[in-house]
């Protein structure tokens, strides 16, 4: 496959953390409904009475959110916007850390970091005293509300599908085969076992499916070069994301979708089943080893703006004009934005389908990855993510 996307590395637009002066004179939010025009546009002034500055990302305790906060969510709608942004930043930090580890140790087992202890993601251990006074423990599989809700929806879908198929059979018998059913027909009784079927706990695991390796790794290495800058910006990732959050305020669903895209392109993965409710398993061994597309300080800024741009277009009805988005994210040329979007789509192999199951599943998928990575860092005495902040 030949891909001709000419995009030279550029110097970063932002050289300092003092960014507000570049947009003080803008007067509206740069949105134009579904219009994504290339015309010049404006942004909200700093003193806009209706524009509330979002809280800093550091105000969110991400560790606590990943440990217990997610389990307590009744719906993804309960996830606060700043919490979603904090999860997105945590993923970016994790990918930067892991890329550095892989560069130092190319034989690092990515499969175990991504999918190790996946089963314990939903396991709760309880301790109790037996009759002899000794303490014993027992493990239980308890689905958090987020997953339990998805399972209920999937089970309802499985229960309703046979009825739909039965009605289709009756219609076909009457209209196409010209064999009308008698009013006292008992054909429904032949489908009794099927109509009473349900999705058992044993069936949930096969339904979850697994990932598969996406397009070839060498091609990904070539495409990702389109995201490189000539030098590392002086702006930190936290400040960059807070700038985006202030002037674009992407919704939680956009941020989780952007995280999902970034995760998949970093590890060259593609989900086998879009209707899964449980975290996906590792790709089969026959797919070969998992390799990582490096996310470092030279390409991370353009990757961030690209996954957010594609997610905004896919999830939100309100699109921001090209020039406004470039002004906020630091792109020097409007023409570069389309090229970056196209490069991202090739990295994802154009697999950008998203539904509620996908986002719910990914939240727990990311938690497993984050736990395994930080367990490895603690075991090796490696530098924590705060010291690697860029």
TrEMBL record:
Compositional bias annotation for Low complexity: 28-42
Any GO MF annotation of the entry: protein kinase binding
Gene Ontology CC annotations of this record: cyclin-dependent protein kinase holoenzyme complex; nucleus
Gene3D superfamilies, A to Z: Cyclin-like
InterPro entries: Cyclin_PHO80-like
Organism superkingdom: Eukaryota
UniProt region (Disordered), positions on chain: 1-57
Pfam families attached to this UniProt entry: Cyclin (PF08613)
Protein name: DEKNAAC101405
């Amino acid at each position: 496959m030949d891909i001709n996307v000419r995009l030279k590395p550029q110097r970063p637009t932002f050289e300092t953390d003092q960014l507000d002066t570049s947009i003080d004179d803008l007067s509206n939010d740069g949105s134009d409904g579904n219009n994504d025009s290339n015309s010049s546009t404006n942004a909200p002034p700093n003193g806009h009475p209706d524009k509330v500055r979002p809280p800093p990302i550091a105000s969110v305790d991400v560790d606590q959110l990943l440990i217990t906060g997610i389990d307590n969510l009744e719906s993804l709608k309960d996830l606060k916007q700043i919490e979603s942004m904090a999860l997105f930043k945590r993923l970016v930090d994790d990918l930067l850390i892991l890329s550095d580890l892989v560069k130092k140790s190319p034989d690092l087992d990515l499969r175990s970091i991504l999918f190790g202890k996946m089963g314990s993601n939903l396991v709760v251990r309880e301790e109790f005293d037996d009759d002899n006074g000794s303490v014993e423990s027992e493990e239980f599989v308890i689905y958090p509300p987020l997953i339990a809700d998805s399972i209920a929806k999937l089970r309802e879908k499985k229960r309703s599908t046979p009825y739909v198929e039965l009605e289709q059979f009756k219609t076909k018998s009457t209209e196409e085969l010209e064999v009308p059913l008698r009013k006292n027909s008992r054909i429904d009784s032949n489908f009794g076992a099927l109509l009473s079927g349900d999705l058992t706990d044993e069936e949930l695991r096969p339904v979850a499916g697994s990932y598969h390796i996406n397009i070839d790794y060498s091609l990904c290495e070539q495409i990702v070069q389109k995201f490189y800058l000539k030098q590392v910006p002086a702006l930190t990732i936290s400040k960059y994301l807070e700038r985006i959050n202030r002037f674009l305020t992407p919704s939680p669903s956009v941020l989780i979708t952007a995280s999902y895209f970034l995760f998949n392109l970093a590890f060259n993965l593609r989900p086998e089943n879009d209707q899964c409710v449980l975290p996906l398993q590792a790709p089969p061994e026959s797919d070969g080893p998992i390799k990582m597309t490096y996310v470092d300080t030279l390409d991370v800024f353009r990757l961030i703006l690209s996954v957010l741009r594609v997610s905004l277009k896919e999830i939100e009805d309100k699109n921001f004009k090209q020039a406004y988005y470039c002004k906020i994210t630091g792109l020097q040329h409007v023409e570069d934005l389309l090229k970056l979007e196209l490069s991202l789509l090739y990295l994802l192999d154009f697999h950008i389908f998203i539904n509620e199951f996908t986002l719910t599943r990914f939240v727990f998928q990311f938690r497993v990855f984050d736990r395994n990575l930080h367990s490895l860092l603690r075991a090796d005495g490696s530098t924590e993510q705060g010291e690697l902040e860029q």
